[in-house]
Design goal:
Pfam families: NAD_binding_8. This protein has 14 helices and 16 strands. By secondary structure, the protein is of the alpha/beta class. α2 runs parallel beside α14. It binds flavin-adenine dinucleotide (FAD).
Length: 428
């Protein structure tokens, strides 16, 4: 779950006394646009704006660009696996973006199927389960989705909002007989919390055009199998325009300019810009375990609606193609401390071992742990009906500040680049 916390918003909006401090010339950066966040949308915006002749400064708190895009390289085999974003959709915007960095894209060929087992992670025991053919349900879902083309463009919702979009997804599934595709939707909707109680609006935003077109005609991936290479090239090109390892201390905005004080590894800097583009939100997680790497293990709820797993819990464990390295995804409808997640993962793996379902080491090793929370912006139905989404839309342009990123669109990089491209064309 992702929420634009009041605390974060007030921090960004706050006028700290530090802002009135005088910054020497060498600590003052003057740019057309200051971009907060260097993930999928922040990096795209920086490159797109520079290409159109604007000067930029990107403030990114981590030591790299890419956000949810994270490629893990096994130190032993040197093989790479995507621990975050894997595929994108065919689209002039995304294809031009990769071509811009001379990164060839190819059709995604899913790895050869591993042995798939379904396990109830609360007991660690195998469940006899055969997924149904989702084709008819997909067609029915596609027909519904086609009614709402506005979902591809941020949260520009009609008034009144169509009733079906406000139904809990579980009710929508029953209404249109979509049960056969729920498990697949839940796999793509990992991180979005309790799928069946989510308003259908959110499910359709995150399982929309990209998912349907991708399943029909195939997704795209870099030929190199390394999505991070785009961000490495972008960082090299941005040079000192990317302030990595940096965080915002304070922001002052008026109708003419913005002033952002940033804590960087080499001290505080003042960024003076004409416009501010806010793209910040989530991060991510995977783990290395002494778990057999030739299984795809799906957590299946026993006696739960649509057999979806109980959360917080493991969604699935999947092979990476790298010996002795698996990818494990865990979700929770509420934020949890990392230690609790690690402990619960280990307890789940112990149950699988004790139930004799899989041979798992007593002390699996975690190669990489990433917390992607907070992830999805979701508000209950009544504020959506009451016009909640008119507020963020009206914010665009107020005090020269603009907003993009998954919170304002969907967790779909291609849709995000299309949305951001449009936003930049209109306002920058
Ligand atoms: C495991 C996983 C797999 C995914 N797979 C796919 C996929 O296959 N295809 C697809 O289209 N989408 C996929 N997604 C979704 C996609 O990655 C996201 O929708 C996209 O990255 C969102 O872009 P963003 O710019 O909003 O956020 P991000 O890419 O997360 O970028 C936000 C950036 O802001 C930084 N930041 C946060 N707070 C601050 C702060 N206060 N100051 C400075 N910087 C800050 C973060 O460090 C981060 O770099 C996946 C997501 C996950 C988690």
């Amino acid at each position: 779950m992702f929420s634009l916390s009041a605390q974060r918003a007030s921090k960004l909006g706050a006028t700290s006394t530090l802002n009135s401090r005088r910054f020497p010339h060498e600590d003052t950066i003057v740019r057309d646009v200051c971009i907060i966040g260097g993930g999928a949308t922040g990096t795209f915006s920086a490159i797109r704006l520079r290409d159109s002749g604007k000067t930029v400064a990107v403030v990114e708190r981590s030591s790299r660009l890419g956000g949810h895009t994270l490629t893990y390289q096994d130190p032993v085999s040197a093989l790479k696996t995507e621990a975050g974003l894997v595929v994108i959709r065919r689209s002039p915007v995304s294809e031009k973006y990769f071509a811009r960095f001379s990164i060839p894209l190819i059709k995604f060929e899913p790895p050869p199927p591993a042995a798939t087992i379904f396990v109830d992670f609360t007991t660690g025991k195998k469940v006899d389960f055969s997924p149904r053919d989702p084709s008819d349900a997909f067609a029915a879902y596609g027909a519904q989705l086609a009614k709402y083309p506005f979902l591809d463009n941020g949260f520009d919702l009609p008034d009144p909002i169509p009733e079906d979009l406000l139904l809990p997804f579980g009710h929508f599934v029953k209404k249109y007989d979509l049960s056969a595709m729920v498990l697949l939707v839940s796999k793509l909707g990992q991180g979005l919390g309790d799928l069946l109680s989510q308003p259908t609006l959110y499910v359709m935003k995150n399982f929309g055009k990209t998912a349907l077109e991708g399943f029909a005609t195939g997704f795209l991936v870099p030929e190199s199998g390394d999505n991070s290479s785009l961000y490495e090239k972008a960082l090299a090109e941005l040079g000192s325009d990317a302030l990595i390892g940096s965080s915002v201390v304070s922001v002052r905005r008026d109708n003419h300019s913005v002033r952002v004080v940033v804590q960087t590894p080499s001290g505080q800097k003042l960024i003076k810009a004409k416009k501010l583009l806010i793209t910040i939100p989530p991060r991510w997680r995977t783990s290395k375990a002494g778990v057999p790497d030739n299984y795809h293990v799906t957590n299946l709820g026993v006696g739960t609606p649509e057999s979806l797993p109980k959360l917080p819990g493991i969604y699935e464990i999947s092979p990476t193609g790298i010996p002795d390295l698996v990818n494990l995804k865990y979700g929770s409808p509420v934020p949890l401390p990392d230690e609790d997640v690690r402990a619960d993962v280990m307890a789940c793996l112990s149950r699988l071992r004790e139930a004799g379902t899989l041979q798992i080491n007593e002390k699996p090793e975690i190669a990489l742990f990433e917390n992607h929370g907070p992830f999805g912006l979701a508000v209950p139905v009544s504020p959506i009906e009451g016009g909640f989404y008119k507020q963020p839309n009206k914010l665009n342009g107020h005090r020269n500040t603009f907003y993009t990123g998954a919170a304002f669109q969907a967790h779909d990089a291609t849709l995000l680049w299309e949305y951001t491209d449009d936003l930049l064309r209109k306002h920058f």
